[in-house]
Write a structure and sequence with these properties.
about 180 residues, alpha+beta, GMP Synthetase, Chain A, domain 3, 2 domains, 3-stranded antiparallel sheet, two-stranded antiparallel sheet, 5 helices, globular
Length: about 180
């Protein structure tokens, strides 16, 4: 498996060297409210349910968005460990990532303007199963911290634009209200 992944990395790097535009991808998620606080997300041909726990008003049928954020970061780190272990020729038999984040609901509920609505801190532990030397493990960790896309998006500001369209409301002279954020 690692040899196949190493070859995939080499092939992709060669293709991107010949044609840099081939490295640019667009990912998409379409998410819709189903009921109460439960949503359904569709990414390519994959469906995922998102909900809130009972104590936050949901039906507790699925993970909530901030749990998915932690899971996305953990999974992205795992993928990045695998890709860069293969790229660097480092043996890697297993990866487990445990992440937790502290969130103060006063920010989300607009109770305290000074309290941010997002995580105050994300902490974690990574368990690698490997016969690699300490120097190889250090090189791998540096690669993961440098090249993990989700970590990059969380650690550095990412430009974001979202357009709002309101259905069912009539504004003077228009059929649809739109606002950009």
């Amino acid at each position: 498996m690692a040899a196949d992944l190493a070859q995939l990395v080499k092939n992709a790097q060669a293709m991107h060297a010949r044609n840099p535009q081939s490295a640019k991808l667009t990912f998409q998620s379409r998410t819709s409210l189903e009921s109460n606080l439960r949503s359904q997300a569709v990414m390519r041909d994959h469906h995922m349910v998102i909900d809130e726990p009972h104590d936050l008003g949901g039906d507790d049928t699925a993970p909530n968005p901030v749990e998915l954020l932690l899971s996305a970061l953990a999974a992205c780190r795992i993928v990045t460990y695998r890709f860069h272990a293969a790229r660097l020729g480092i043996p890697l038999d297993g990866v487990e990532v445990l992440l937790e984040g502290d969130l103060d609901l006063r920010g989300f509920l607009a109770e305290e303007d000074a309290v941010r609505p997002g995580f105050e801190e994300i902490r974690g532990q990574v368990k690698l199963t490997t016969s690699a030397s300490p120097e190889q493990v250090q090189a791998l960790e540096e690669a993961v911290n440098r090249y993990c896309p989700v970590r990059d998006n969380l650690a550095r500001p990412t430009p974001m634009s979202v357009t709002l369209t309101v259905s069912g409301q009539e504004a003077p002279g228009t059929g649809t209200l739109a606002a950009g954020t």
